[in-house]
Specification:
The complex is a heterodimer of chains A (about 475) and B (about 100). With about 475 residues, chain A is an alpha/beta fold. Among the domains of chain A are: about 260 residues, HUPs (Rossmann fold); about 30 residues. Chain A has 17 helices and eight strands. Chain B has a single domain, classed as Beta-grasp domain (Ubiquitin-like (UB roll), Roll), CATH 3.10.20. By secondary structure, chain B is of the alpha+beta class. In chain B, strand 3 and strand 4 form a beta hairpin. Classes of the chains: A alpha/beta (about 475), B alpha+beta (about 100). At the A-B interface, helix 9, helix 11 and helix 12 of A face helix 1, strand 6 and strand 7 of B.
Chain lengths: ~475, ~100
């Protein structure tokens, strides 16, 4: 029996509720609905990647789909799942032997599910092409008739079992070069704080997941965020300056990547329910350490927020659900009518929140930061201190060249290195700027890579613009 | 004082990884309630970092305790008197241990 905020449930009733709840996201995923834009129409036989992270949620998520895709299931799930696991041992500092042992155990577990699976070392993120930071346009809405036709086709084809059988054969554990691991460790070590490290790790992982889903032909990416995790993430994101990206970071569907949509089907379940489910249904598990394993409560903002929420939940059981329900109401305000027109952050791929007017909260924050760091105040003829308008991020130096102002104001770039840093900042959202700011050594390598990607992006954009003009549009 | 009873303790693998608990599964003879059991565990089983498991009188928030596969909140939590052949399971729901 399990005690919940709404009362206690017996095992049978609770397990029925869990399995029924699993099908709610199915309706959200599958059917054309006249609801908010967070629900995306998709066609059956779409490949969906289940992202395997090191938490309890994903252990259970692996075992729910077999019950759903089984032909005997009362309500069948009409998609073909694949599993991807990102081995982050290189970033955490694990030795090769332990990584091999863990991936072997996971390999056996994945094989038993019968789904195709991919085990990738995080080191592969260092070799991703520049196109990973370019969000292709999303699939256009399909009419209802196309959906019904696709359902019939999917059922006739036997539910995609051919794909499953083919992909499971010949899966081998990836080989990781020591030089790549060292590079990755250098990149992680360049972040001074654990907060920045965790943020960076999360971003790198996400890029690799999206790239894998894209290259393997998967249209959806299932993430294992539970209700509790999302409540913590919501408060953490606010603390990290990601208020503008809350809807995408915590919503059911995340469309920032364009062709690959990230979904969170487990967001209705609390961590306690998931743990109980795993126990009741004897779901096998493999313990994998993360960056903040065995760290004190105040080691990072993420850790501190988790500690705060879980402690509050113990005394006030409605804490997590209240935070979660509040987060459900969040939506992203669109600045332009076309998604392609909005500039996106190079790291997190969300719309830039730094392009704002003068009298904005961001401007006030930046001016306060600048003034608090300024050693000598800038004094004008009237003996008053005027904050430089160049405090705006990325506006002091344009992309075309360095600052040409005669006055060297605090925060204004006065050297090629600072110009490079300002250029990089203009490509990042506020939160990612703070993460990159925390990176000391290895920053040059990170900057160079980002610069190359942004240059490639500009070339792609310029090429398409030239083509469009030549066609006479 | 009540006679000792056989109690089966089970810890999720994460506890072993923390380095806090020597055995994942063990059977002990114990007389008392859950509060006294937690004190006993802290003194005898936790090798290091007891604060990752115990906070004050009770377990750290985020750790799920099951008594015979039932939530311990339904059984009286710390006041539950242990009975013969009880199965106590500790599961961590915390991210990163």
């Amino acid at each position: 029996m399990l005690m919940r905020e709404s009362g206690c449930l017996g095992q049978e009733c609770w397990s029925r509720e869990v399995l029924a709840g699993w099908y709610v996201p199915r309706t959200e995923l599958g059917y054309p609905r006249c609801r908010t834009s967070s629900y995306t129409l998709y066609l059956p036989s779409s490949l969906i990647t289940i992202c395997m992270l090191f938490n309890l949620v994903l252990q259970s998520i692996l075992f729910l789909p077999p019950q759903g895709v089984s032909q005997k299931a009362h309500k069948k799930l009409r998609f073909v799942p694949g599993i991807v696991y990102i081995d982050e041992g290189g970033a955490v500092g694990q030795c090769k032997e332990i990584r091999q042992k863990t991936t072997s155990e996971l390999c056996e577990m994945f094989r038993s599910t019968g789904f195709p699976f991919y085990i990738l070392p995080l080191e592969q993120v260092l070799d991703l092409p520049g196109s990973v930071v370019v969000a292709p346009s999303s699939l256009s809405d399909q009419p209802t008739s196309a959906y019904k036709a696709a359902v019939d086709l999917f059922l006739q084809s036997g539910g995609g079992t051919d794909v499953i059988t083919q992909e499971q054969e010949g899966v081998s554990l990836p080989d990781v070069q020591d030089s790549q691991t060292q590079l990755l460790q250098q990149l992680m070590d360049s972040a001074k704080t654990l907060t920045a490290k965790q943020d960076l790790l999360s971003t790198l992982r996400q890029h690799l997941l999206v790239h894998t889903a894209r290259t393997k032909g998967y249209s959806k990416l299932m993430l294992g965020d539970s209700c509790t995790r999302l409540a913590v993430k919501l408060l953490t994101s606010i603390s990290l300056g990601r208020g503008a990206q809350l809807a995408e970071d915590t919503g059911f569907s995340d469309c920032r990547y364009g062709d690959v949509v990230a979904v969170r089907p487990m967001r209705e379940y609390s961590a306690k329910e998931i743990a109980y489910y795993n126990r009741m249904f004897k779901v096998p598990s493999v313990v994998i350490p993360s960056l903040d394993t065995k760290t004190p409560d105040k080691a990072s903002i993420q850790r501190l927020t988790e500690s705060f929420v879980t402690k509050l939940q113990a005394d006030f059981p409605s804490t997590v659900s209240t935070i979660y329900r509040t987060g459900e109401k969040l939506q992203t305000a669109c600045r332009s009518s076309s998604a392609e027109d909005t500039d996106r952050c190079l790291l997190c791929m969300c719309s830039l929140d730094t392009v704002v007017e003068e009298a904005s909260a961001l401007q006030a924050t930046l001016i306060s930061e600048q003034l608090s760091q300024t050693k000598a105040p800038l004094i004008t003829g009237q003996n008053s201190v005027e904050p430089e308008p160049s405090a705006a991020v990325g506006r002091c130096c344009s992309a075309e060249g360095p600052c040409e102002g005669t006055q060297v104001a605090a925060g204004c770039c006065s050297s090629p290195k600072e110009h490079e840093a300002a250029e990089l900042r203009s490509l990042l959202c506020y939160s990612c700027q703070r993460t990159v700011r925390d990176m000391v050594s290895g920053r040059a390598a990170a900057v160079t890579r980002m610069k190359l990607r942004s240059q490639r992006e500009k070339i792609i954009k310029n090429s398409s613009t030239t083509l469009i003009s030549k066609l006479g549009f | 004082m009540a006679a000792p009873v056989a109690v089966h303790l089970e810890f999720g693998q994460i506890f072993f990884w923390w380095g806090g608990v020597c055995n994942v599964n063990l059977c002990v003879w114990f007389a008392g309630d859950m509060k006294q059991l937690l004190v006993w565990i802290q003194q005898n089983l936790l090798k290091e970092r007891p604060e990752l498991f115990v906070q004050g009188d009770t377990v750290r928030p985020g750790i799920l305790v099951l008594i015979n596969d039932a939530d311990w909140e339904l059984m009286g939590q710390l006041d539950y008197q242990l009975e013969d052949r009880d199965n106590i399971v500790f599961i961590s729901t915390l991210h990163g241990g």
